[in-house]
Write a structure and sequence with these properties.
This protein is an alpha/beta fold and 347 residues long. It has eleven helices and 15 strands. The protein has an eleven-stranded mixed sheet with strand order 1-8-2-3-7-4-6-5-9-10-11, with helices on both faces. A four-stranded parallel sheet has the order 13-14-12-15, sandwiched between helices. β9 and β10 form a beta hairpin. Bound molecules: threonylcarbamoyladenylate and magnesium ion (MG). Magnesium ion binds next to loops.
Length: 347
């Protein structure tokens, strides 16, 4: 099953299926040097970050970046985040560095924040999805930083999952999705945060969050001394027709194969409702997985791994408890609501 998946989209120019030999590397300095050479040579390397694993290519190499779309099976209008290893690299990528950008860089870089900025014309269109802006991130994970330094170039990297699967938070997730489709995978530890970076659009007068993450609205607002906006699409529920400003947010992300239902309300009532539904479904012979988190940090770290596990275990229905949509809870619920197709029962 897995091997068939690996070969589906690696068609060569004649439409014949090809499997690429994937080097499985460690996070030792020697192996990071090898991975850096692969990136320099126009190859693809999956690597850990503090948010999720990324699939990297030289951001300035049109052919290398094109390979990412093919490896992931990703729509080519979806722009990449460009990863840097020094704050100074921003100068070569952004058209201008505003005082607001300086403040956020100083407060949150290196770390899980991506700034969308007006771009320099030399970045290939294939990296930016043809937009006149580019998302830039300076990750804090030491392996990511060492790799980008070794490559010596900005590294375009979406999450290292097959398109439509949850972002990978362990090296096993990456190996499962991308072995046979990329040149190398760096096996390292599990990701610290477990959800993708906060994406903030810095091109308007008031910055706007396009994707919520570990760096929250209040953290950003505090540093800037003014309230940053939220893309209205982030508060939309199913049926409401807002176009998200971040192209990647419009795709059906994170949807597990199982039907997923979220229960919202006071925790004891939620747990009672989940138990009742679980018993009823199991009587019908359904396989049920219950997801109840104790806190937002744990939820962010474990959510994607649990959704993947549900698929691997052949679960029919996932019953999940909601959490208050504030701070990191808002970011986690953003992912949970999408996974569940906004299927929420209020108790
Ligand atoms: O934490 C992360 O950001 C991870 C790690 C690997 O760094 N990367 C990641 O990349 O999540 P990806 O490609 O899966 O998600 C990037 C998101 C998409 O929703 C994309 O549309 C948005 O960022 N984005 C990128 N460039 C943009 C731009 N110029 N304008 C608006 N949205 C942009
Ligand atoms: Mg992604």
């Amino acid at each position: 099953m897995r091997d068939r998946e690996h070969t589906i989209q690696n068609n060569n120019a004649f439409g014949i299926q090809e499997e690429i030999e994937t080097k499985i590397l460690t996070d030792s300095p020697e192996d990071i040097a090898v991975a850096g050479e692969i990136l320099k040579g126009g190859g693809l390397v999956a690597f850990p970050t503090e948010t999720v694993y990324g699939l990297g290519a030289d951001a300035m190499d049109l052919l290398a970046v094109s390979k990412i779309y093919r490896a992931k099976g990703r729509p080519s209008d979806n722009p990449m985040i460009v990863h840097i290893a020094e704050k100074e690299w921003l100068k070569d990528l952004a058209l201008e560095i505003t005082p607001d950008m300086e403040k956020l860089m100083d407060a949150f870089w290196p770390g899980p924040m991506t700034m969308v900025v007006k771009r320099q014309p030399n970045i290939p269109d294939v990296t930016t999805g043809g937009l006149d802006t580019v998302g830039i991130r300076f990750p804090s994970n030491p392996v990511a930083r060492a790799l980008i330094k070794a490559a010596g170039c900005p590294v375009a990297a979406p999450s290292a999952n097959l398109s439509g699967k949850p972002s990978p938070t362990t090296s096993d997730h990456v190996i499962k999705d991308l072995k046979g489709r990329v040149d190398a995978i760096i096996k390292s530890g599990d990701c610290l945060h477990g959800i993708e970076s906060t994406v903030i659009d810095m091109t308007g007068v008031i910055p706007m969050i396009l994707r919520p993450g570990v760096i929250t609205q209040s953290m950003l607002s505090d540093v800037l001394g003014k309230k940053v906006k939220l893309d209205p699409a982030l508060n939309a529920r199913l049926g409401e027709n807002y176009q998200p400003r971040s192209p990647g947010m419009k795709y059906k992300h994170y949807a597990p194969q199982a039907e997923m239902k979220i229960y919202a309300g006071e925790r004891p009532k939620v747990e009672a409702a989940i138990n009742q539904e679980k018993n009823a479904l199991e009587k019908e012979g359904k396989r049920v997985k219950v997801i109840v988190f104790d806190n937002e940090v744990e939820a962010a770290r474990d959510l994607f791994a649990l959704l993947r596990a549900a698929d691997d275990e052949g679960v029919d229905v996932i019953l999940a408890a909601s959490m208050p949509e504030v701070g990191l809870g808002f970011s986690v619920m953003n992912r949970m609501l999408k996974s569940a197709g906004y299927n929420v029962t209020y108790v």
